[in-house]
Structure formats: C-alpha cells, structure tokens
Amino acid sequence: MLKYLHDYSEQGRAFPSPLFTSHKIPLRLSLRPRTSSSENIIFNEVKAMSRRLRSIPDSKETPAQHPSKRKFSFLLRVYLSDTNAQGNVYFARFFDWQGRAREEFLRAAVPGHQALFLAGLRLLTSEASAEYKGEARLYDEIEVAIHVPWIKRASFQLGFTFINTKTGEILAVGRQVIACSNSEGKLVAIPQEIKKALLPLKSA
Predict the structure, then answer these.
(1) Virtual CA dihedral for 78, 18, 92, 162, nearest 10 degrees?
(2) Assessment of whether the complete model's pTM goes beyond 0.70
(3) Is 146 a domain residue?
(4) For residue 55, what pLDDT is reported?
(5) H or E stretch at 11
(6) What is the CATH number of the domain that holds 190?
(7) What percentage of the chain carries pLDDT values higher than 90?
(8) Is the N or C terminus of the chain more exposed, i.e. has fewer CB atoms within 10 Å?
(9) Does residue 71 form part of some domain?
C-alpha cells in the first residue's frame, strides 16, 4: 500500500523512503563518383558524413560522465540524539536522513515544488529500504549522495549512498520508489519541473 509523504509545507519532513547505450554500427559505403557536378557534390557530402560517423567512438571508447554530475550531495553531522546506547547511529536514522536529503534536493533543484504541492501534487513512497555496511558515530560527517536509477511516466527511484567524508567508507545504501498522484490519489505524470531536475542524476 502506498503511503503518503508528510506535507512539506506544513511539517517540513518527508516519509523515509528507487542512458543511453550506444551500439557500434558498422558503416560501409561503396559509392562511385558520377560525372555530373551535382552528383559529385552529393557524393562528397556523403563521404564527409561517413568520415564524421566513423569518428564517433563506440560505447567502450566514450568517456564516462564525471560522477559529480550524476549525483546530488547533502552533508550532515552525527549528534548525540542520532546514537544509541552502543554509541553508534541508530539504524532507523538512515531513513530519516533519506527523507532529509530528498527534501534538500527538492528545495535546491525544484524551487517551485511547494506550488506544485499546493496545486494538489502528492509524492507517494511505495518502497523504502536500507542496507547497512558500516557504523557511523558521534560527530562523524556524512555525505548523502542521491542518484536516480530509473524514471517512468508517473514514478521514479532515488538511490542513496551514505559516505563517511573523513574515511571515504560507505556506511549504507538505500532506495525509495516514489509515485506522483493528484489530491484524489490518482496517479499522474511526473511534473516537468521535477523530471527536469531528476534527469541529470539518472544513472548511465
């Protein structure tokens, strides 16, 4: 069952909560120049286009986009209220941090999102998970990196990576599957303002 997120405008907190592959196509031309000037012009244009196409690298040669272009980062610090009796961060806190990072992403990347909510848009969290790989402790600084594994017409997935900024250790990974609906709970297409902000974070 889908669960509604908290209203951002009233409570300011989200419910904790998921490019192209190029293929090398051989291009072989076997053209013979004609005697007429117009045919020679066309032939030369085709040859030039052929050279340009052959100069495009295939998927193995295409440089990968710099990782910083594929994620949104949010920094936070561990405080006493985040820890348990053993002195490490309570596991449920990572879900709170997912919601906080998502809110910061909306604030920074979709400045008009509050108007969308006032117009009736709802973000519904249908799935949320976390996998723990390390411990975070008092006063650790943690980077929460958001990326977007996939985008569909009315839903999208956010991926979260929690990194200790001092050691570089990955502490946890998580994900949320989020759907868009109107005020009556009917699924609607992702608003263009949000989709435009998601696309630069989409996994290659």
Answers:
(1) -20
(2) no
(3) yes
(4) 42
(5) helix 8-11
(6) 3.10.129.10
(7) 63
(8) N
(9) yes
